[in-house]
Design a protein that fits this description.
five-stranded mixed sheet; six-stranded mixed sheet; single chain; binds 5'-O-[(R)-(carboxyoxy)(hydroxy)phosphoryl]adenosine; 349 residues; binds zinc ion; alpha/beta
């Protein structure tokens, strides 16, 4: 059995977690997530402020994670830290801290890919969310459709050509005068819309056409910038945005989700998978999981969505991905660096 301290500082969450176990049998002993509120004032993440906030909070956050787990630092076998992709200054805080802790505790150092962490996150809550499965990772910075044959054996099927799904939610929220980050505000507004309001606006599902075939470059890809422009026109054309905002939010969300569901269903069918695993901040959206289930239930496909703490950035996922690589023998040196972009290990296609 291995005990791992996970650290995640790639964006605007300072997080530490303790996880123990072996193979797919793991227990999350603690998870601490400190969200940086400062960025709300600016309507987006300010990298320099993120780094400074990580610096202030990383030590108490890690101490709390160890205390919650009731585990002394000396019992840690490995420190798993997100080394990319993300904001380099923010990542460097976690990487430097991780090195120091690993050295001080006499533990191994394991650098982890942030998006591979998201692939593992849902399995911490749903033990059946293990390979083989189709993964849809949707966050503020990424939109990835991946076939997961086994842990460490990934095939990239598609992604966004422009805005990430969460970014589209945030931009549309801004157009509707909602706070940042806007995803959950759009979800709430959309849920409040009545049938009439929901029908008043209708946007086409981006990049979904019946004549697309496997092998076409747009078969699995998505695109949200056109949808965002359509929302902009609807907002400008409205003489009463307070009245229309609910309907616009609903129509936007329906179109975006419709596109994601269609592309995911194509991936499921192509690789004959029986499980779909959602991850990333947009996986908090209940309408997304509901639409995915509605579409795939009848073909006997299970859809797993993580709880919000595991959907958004967190160190439990870094610890879990770190455990996998630790067990495969990965040991990083104190020369481990932070990278703004980084290929997912084990990815083909
Ligand atoms: O994974 P995450 O916490 O951070 C990134 O790595 O980006 O994702 C944050 C994104 C934001 O764009 C936020 O608006 C979106 O997730 N989000 C949602 C919901 N909750 C968070 N989008 C739609 N519906 C939600 N309920
Ligand atoms: Zn993320």
């Amino acid at each position: 059995m291995t005990t791992i301290l996970g650290i995640e500082t790639s964006c605007d969450e300072t997080s530490a977690a303790v996880l123990s176990g072996s193979g797919d049998v793991v227990r999350l002993d603690s998870l601490v997530i400190l969200s940086q509120d400062v960025h709300r004032v600016f309507g987006g993440v300010v990298p320099e402020l993120a780094s400074r906030a990580h610096l202030t909070s990383i030590v108490p956050v890690a101490e709390r994670a160890l205390a919650d787990a009731g585990i002394p630092l000396g019992s840690i076998d490995a420190v798993a830290v997100t080394s990319g992709p993300g904001l380099v200054g923010a990542l460097l805080v976690g990487v430097s801290f991780g090195k120091a802790v690993a050295m001080g505790a006499g533990a191994a150092l394991v650098g982890v890919h942030h998006m591979e962490g998201h692939l593992f996150a849902t399995s911490l809550e749903h033990p059946d969310a293990v390979p083989p499965f189709t993964a849809l990772l949707v966050s503020g910075g990424h939109t990835l459709l991946i076939d997961v044959e086994a842990w460490g054996a990934y095939r990239m099927l598609g992604g966004t050509r422009d805005d990430a799904a969460g970014e589209a939610f945030d931009k549309v929220a801004k157009l509707l005068g909602l706070p940042y980050p806007g995803g959950r505000h759009i979800e709430r507004l959309a849920a409040e819309s009545n049938l009439e309001e929901a029908r008043k606006f209708r946007f086409t599902k981006p990049m979904v056409r019946g004549d697309q075939q496997l092998g076409d470059p747009d078969y699995f890809d998505v695109s949200f910038s056109g949808l965002k422009t359509a929302v902009l026109h609807a907002v400008r054309g409205s003489d009463n945005l307070e009245r229309d905002a609910r309907g616009i939010a609903r129509a936007f969300q329906d179109a975006l989700i419709g596109s994601l569901v269609e592309k995911t269903a194509r991936a499921v069918q192509t690789y004959d998978r029986k499980r779909v695993v959602l991850g990333g901040g947009v996986a908090c959206n209940r309408a997304l999981a509901a639409a995915m289930r509605e579409r795939l239930d009848s073909s006997g496909v299970s859809v797993y969505a993580p709880m919000p703490r595991l959907a958004t950035d967190n160190a439990a996922m870094s610890a879990r991905a770190g455990l996998f690589h630790f067990e495969r023998g990965q040991r990083d040196s104190l020369g481990l660096n932070a990278f703004a972009s980084l290929p997912i290990p084990g990815m083909v296609g």
